[in-house]
Each structure stands twice: as C-alpha cells, then as structure tokens.
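Could you show me just one protein sequence together with its fold in token form as a worked example?
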Amino acid sequence: MPDAARLVAAVSLAIIAWIVSGLIPPLMPEGTDFGYFAFVNVGLGILCGWLVMGRRAGRGITAAINNGLTGVAALVFWGLFVQATNEMVRLAMRNRFGGPFEAILAIFEIGADYARVLVDSGILTVLLVGAVLAGLATEYAWRTWR
C-alpha cells in the first residue's frame, strides 16, 4: 500500500545511492567504464527504500535508526550483487571463465573486490549518516502523514 513513509524512504535511499555512486569512480582504476552505474544504484535505492524501509516505519525512534541502517545495508548488498553480476556477464562474454560454476563463483570474488572500495572513510560516513537521516525522515513521514 503506497504511503508517505514508503515514498520518503525510497527517495532517501535513492539520494544516498546517487551520492555514493558519485564518490566511487575516483577510487576505481583509471579508464573504468561505469555506464549506467549510478542509475542502476538509484533504482536499487528506490526499491530498497520502498520494500525494506517503508513497510517497517512507525515503530519508534530507535527502530527508525535501525530501519535506516537495515535499508542502507540492503542497498549496499544488492548494489554489490547487481554490479558484480554485471561485471561477471561482461567478462563471460569475453570467454574469461572455464564454465558456469567458475562464472558464478566470480560474482562473489568481484563483489568482494568492490566491497573493498566501499571501505573508504568518506563513503562509510555518507552511508552511516545517510542511514540515520533516512530512518528518521521515514519515521517522521509515517507520524506526520498517516
């Protein structure tokens, strides 16, 4: 059921995804082609905000902060998974893997490499502060526009 809390959660996580997507390219190797990287992450932010955070609103301030942290954790997980899968498919089209199981295993290896990039103080700060603010904004929206 659409409501203001789901909308605020979706917009909040989309903003966080957009900001973090702008912080990642300078940390990656020169000449990396990002394509639709930021737009895919924003779409994932909208989905995670709507499905994960929006339905858990209305349980209090502490739960709101935890809700924000959970939403951002889901966003990071799905972002890593989708981007790693995309890279695996790109490499598979160049016949870089010996078989399907090696390709599936590569998703997790590539995801772990991408996760190492996220362990940057600027990115972690944006994720944590954004998670708290998104959770509180979602709770405020739920209390204000029931």
Notes: The chain has one domain: 4-25+36-144.
